[in-house]
């Protein structure tokens, strides 16, 4: 009888241990099922649409109440007419693509320069002591400050535009990677060295994968700086030889005292910047965080 009780107790402990292991495995497991489309629309799409609708309603109420003159706050219908006119003329998509293509190409160039630079700063103490403070200072410098020297260096051409973008985005990307590497647990680096992953092999297999969340945050910030830098360059260095981008569209509206055109340019700049972030960077960031168990579905 005593042996039977002992057996039952041992069996119960084994069941508890198995249940505990199953629970831990469930916590570690990555949820791979897709979120229903209706839930995505309700939680992700509806809130920003409501916020934009609220802004437009407040805008129209201010216009209808004649809080200020139409020369200072144009009605929504005037902005819509400007948008329709550009669409009918066939210039709307051309203007957007001119700026988007410049911004994306400049960002890719900044990515190619900022990534090895950040890796070098993070891993080599002498380079970090020499360049680290400069990168921090450059990140806080407004991109518009680089437009005058870039014009003097290269003239009014695309090289000037890309120079301004690089000087604005490279420090953000490099600093993001440095921050990500600084947050890597030392155990990972020691384990990598023990397994023979040193030098470039260690950077590829240990450092970069472990620093990926911080690196992605730096990339998002780098895109924001790229877009802002491009808009500053297009507004200040306007020229027919550069083609018509969103920044030039904004500046042309100011020169022609076309306030609906000015607001249309501002809205397009905002929409394109948000769209790139939502369509490219946010899905990649969620995928990385979810694959590492750092993003839990609420």
Structure description:
- By secondary structure, the chain is mainly α.
- It has helices at residues 2-28, 37-64, 76-89, 92-123, 125-140, 147-154, 158-182, 186-194, 199-210, 212-236, 246-255, 259-291.
- Helix 4 runs antiparallel to helix 5 and helix 11 (246-255) packs antiparallel against helix 12 (259-291).
- The radius of gyration is 27 Å and the shape is globular.
- The two termini are 49 Å apart.
- The model has no long low-confidence stretch (mean pLDDT 81).
Enumerate the spans where pLDDT stays under 50 for 5 or more consecutive residues.
none
Write the element-wise H/E pattern from the N-terminal end onward: HHHHHHHHHHHH
Calculate Rg over CA atoms: 27 Å
Largest sheet: none
The N- and C-terminal alpha carbons lie at a distance of 49 Å
Number of β-strand runs = 0
Q: How large is the count of helical segments?
A: 12
Task: Please state the average pLDDT score.
Answer: 81
Overall geometric form: globular
């Amino acid at each position: 009888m005593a042996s039977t009780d002992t057996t039952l107790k041992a069996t119960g402990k084994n069941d508890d241990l198995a249940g505990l292991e199953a629970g831990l495995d469930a916590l570690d497991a990555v949820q791979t099922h897709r979120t229903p489309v209706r839930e995505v629309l309700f939680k992700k799409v509806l809130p920003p649409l409501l916020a934009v609708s609220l802004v437009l309603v407040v805008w129209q109420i201010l216009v209808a109440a004649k809080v200020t003159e139409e020369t200072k706050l144009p009605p929504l219908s005037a902005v819509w007419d400007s948008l329709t006119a550009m669409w009918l003329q066939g210039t709307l998509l051309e203007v957007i693509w001119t700026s988007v293509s410049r911004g994306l190409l400049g960002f890719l160039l900044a990515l190619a320069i900022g990534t090895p630079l950040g890796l070098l700063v993070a891993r080599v103490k002498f380079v970090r002591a020499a360049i680290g403070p400069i990168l921090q200072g450059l990140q806080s410098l407004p991109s518009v400050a680089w437009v005058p020297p870039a014009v003097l260096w290269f003239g009014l051409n695309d090289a000037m535009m890309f120079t301004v973008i690089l000087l604005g985005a490279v420090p953000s990307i490099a600093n993001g990677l440095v921050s990500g590497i600084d947050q890597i647990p030392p155990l990972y680096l020691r384990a990598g060295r023990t397994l023979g992953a040193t030098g470039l092999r260690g950077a590829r297999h240990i450092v970069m994968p472990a620093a990926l969340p911080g690196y992605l945050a730096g990339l998002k910030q780098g895109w924001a700086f790229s877009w802002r830098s491009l808009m500053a360059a297009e507004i200040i260095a306007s020229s027919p030889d550069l083609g018509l981008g969103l920044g030039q569209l904004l500046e042309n509206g100011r020169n022609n005292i076309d306030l609906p055109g000015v607001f249309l340019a501002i809205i397009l700049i905002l929409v394109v910047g948000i769209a790139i972030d939502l369509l490219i960077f946010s899905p990649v960031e969620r995928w990385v965080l979810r694959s590492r168990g750092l993003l839990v579905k609420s």
